[in-house]
Amino acid sequence: MRRPSTVELMLLATVLLWALNVSVTKYILEHGLEPLSYATVRYALAGVIFVALTLFAERTLRIERRHIAVLALTAVVLWLNQLSFVLALDATTATTIGLLLGAIPIFTALIGLALGRERLKRRFWVAAAVSAVGVSLVAIGSGGDVSGGYGGILLGLSTCATWAAYSVVVAPMMQTYSASRVSAVVVPAAWVLIALSGVPQTRDQDWALGWEVWILVVLATLGPLVLTNILWFRSLHRVGPARATLAVNLQPFVAAVLAVVLLSEPLSALQVLGGALIAAGIFIARRRTPGPQGA
User: What is the rounded distance in angstroms from the CA atom of residue 46 to the CA atom of residue 207?
Assistant: First the structure.
């Protein structure tokens, strides 16, 4: 066995923050903020941070004309992803959405193959299959606790599909621009669409919320949105979308554990077994093939 590489540690930090974000967002929605009001405030704050960081570090937000259409498409996909995410969590439990997010690598591989951007070896597919079985066991183990009906499930799957598409579409931009510059352009553009979509909710929103909720909104922006965007984009640039999203298979189990601790949602023994298989799949994917021995 080898030590974890820098990119693997980046992916681990990203997955842990994303898993935490599922429970944090559910808590925020249960304590006063409407889904689209939350997304509007969060992306406004994130957009300001990304623009400030990029101008400080790079002194420019310049994007070549030939890339504007791609980044515009990326902003639309991110908008759809955020609508799906917050509406799904409003419709069902954090555990349910956390479990469904394990499907992200499947969507990513299919989109990457369709666009001719991924060439995957047999080991990846074996690892993905093992992890998929783990995800299935986690879902089966949830039993009757999976709630929200077809609407919540479909929104959860839409979250997976749109995040996979976002990762595949934006990955080539990492060869030309930094992660922060891409985010400084895409996040504000996505915010405009989110804000327009959320006008009815933000107009009627009661903003007199407790200080705990606002602290969580800030933390949910700085960690799971700002920091993870930078780590995720850099990981995509180094290992490609399909291999990067394989690590996301850890998220269902981690999100379920956090939901148990933070939101008192149930976790069964079968879900624990599924989490072990998810970890086994990632072990298979990152294990090196032994080289030929010397004489």
Answer: 19
